[in-house]
Amino acid sequence: MIQRFEVGPRLSEMAIHNGVVYLAGQVADEASHDIRGQTRQVLASIDALLAQAGTDKTKILRAEIFLKDLIDFAGMNEAWDEWVVAGHTPPRATVQARLADAEWLVEIVITAAV
User: What CDD domains does its record include (predicted)?
Assistant: First the structure.
């Protein structure tokens, strides 16, 4: 069985299958913030979705981070390091990418265990 959450005409924000949670790419709601602010917003969205699925950030299996510009790598890492739980740091990939909205500085995709 597949459970889908916040289903829209183009995508669902989250799906759960066989005890694994798949999040859609999360982006900032308020794009006027700098990289730290946008990353914090994204991480808060991730926390909320994981809680809705009955899990949390200590159960992240993989994180994929897309940055508009790698110049923001250090600032994104500052927010990430404040958020991630010591001893539960997930495998992670970070790449520079052209994001769908020019105002977005970061997009994060998460896969986690329930």
Answer: YjgF_YER057c_UK114_like_2 (cd06150)
Location of structure tokens 């950030």: 57
Domain that holds residue 55: 2-113
Q: How far apart are CA 111 and CA 7, in angstroms?
A: 18
Q: What is the pTM of this model?
A: 0.96
Report DSSP letters for 23-87, one per residue. EPPB--S-TTS-HHHHHHHHHHHHHHHHHHTT--GGGEEEEEEEES-GGGHHHHHHHHHHHSPTT
Residue count (the chain): 114
23-65 per-position pLDDT tens digit:
999 999 999 999 999 999 999 999 999 999 999 999 999 999 9
**How many domains, in total, are found in the chain?**
1
Q: What is the domain-level CATH number for residue 41?
A: 3.30.1330.40
